[in-house]
Amino acid sequence: MPGQLVCFSPACRRRFPITEVAYTCAACGSLLEAEYDFSAADGKALRRLWRERRTSEHPLDRSGVWRYREMFPFLDDYTPVVTLREGNTPLLEAPAAARYGGLDALRFKHQGYNPSGSFKDNGMTAGVAQARRLGRKMVACVSTGNTSASMAAYAAAGGLRAAIFIPHGNIAYGKLAQALEYGALTFQVEANFDQILALVRELADREGIYLLNSVNPFRIEGQKTIVLEILEQCGWRAPDWIVLPGGNLGNTSAFGKALREAVEVGLIDRSPRLAVIQAEGAAPFYNLLREGAGEIRNVEHPETLATAIKIGAPVSWPKARREVETSGGVVEQVSEQEIADAKAVIGRCGIGCEPASAATLAGIRKLTAAGVIGRGQDVVAVLTGHLLKDPDYIHRYHTGQLDDPQGRRIESTFGNQPIMAPNDAAHIARLLRER
Ligand code: F0G
Asked: Does residue 143 have its Cβ closer than 6 Å to ligand 1?
């Protein structure tokens, strides 16, 4: 049974065939989500099956996404799948980061180990499979960088044309470089993410291009496997908290859906709580939950050096709100200085990540200080992107040249300046002894 697309709105719940090319409900305009009949699913048997697949050489089983395909059975057959062996990312212990975050222990689920260096690959392999199943020749997205890098890679591998739209001057260089190298048609538009998303949705409708932003419900289906892999790596004992950064809130939606379904089929007996962390200059979701308002108030001019989450009008907020509330979760916001310092601490663990990912540790530090997360609780934080995505930020931080969007200097609390040295062993020996 390949499932159906269902309108997310509780008041509507209109259903569409799984092959409908739609991102929002034709009746009410709300987001769509995939729904399956899991009544015959057996959690124990699935856990065993997925473990056995780890010894298989079949490409679908080697993928850390398609290994869990029983939890997103939207395809009738698997020929449209393009896999770059995404997923399979490690859960890393980080004692120094735990201390900094006010915890006894902390583990990072590092999605930067993915083929294109971010968590987007988990969703993109699913979205591209659906594009190919539908016979679409061209795919498109607007992106703060990682979605476009990922889509460009999977489109190239799957023989699709890729058109990406990025806010001019506002994405990290590593991400732009990837899109170019993977051969995507790349448009730099003089507008912010939210404005370009409206533009691309119009273009997609008009030109018959398949849209692969996180409004695409199949991206969400693939991203659910990040949570499944975490749970498997935890021996199916749910941690107390899963902490993740929030931008367009696709990932929050995917994580919550995965957790609800994992409980439904008996993979775990209780859900971890979600903690979503936003950057202060781009925190409409934080404001929504703090104020308890009915509708989100968009941030007109979002600002943060964590460009991946520089989003003022997050599309998936209704889903994300449901998921945070259902899991008994929280939303926190953190400053530019807090993100920068947390990022350096994650680096000092030998792990490293891009700025948006470091919002997690900065958020944990605030939430433990406030007593929301307990020191002894079991916490997994998701690092969403690789350290090398944004080398410019790193160099500026460590050399004391990083300014926040208001032009205020960020203190390089954990700075590590390169040392200029002459070609002289005796001189360098002296420098070594001094440090
Ligand atoms: N972390 C990184 C590294 C990201 O690239 C993104 C989103 C997020 C966190 C936030 O995830 O949107 O699901 O809440 N990047 C998107 C992009 C918007 O275009 O690459 P979210």
From this structure: yes
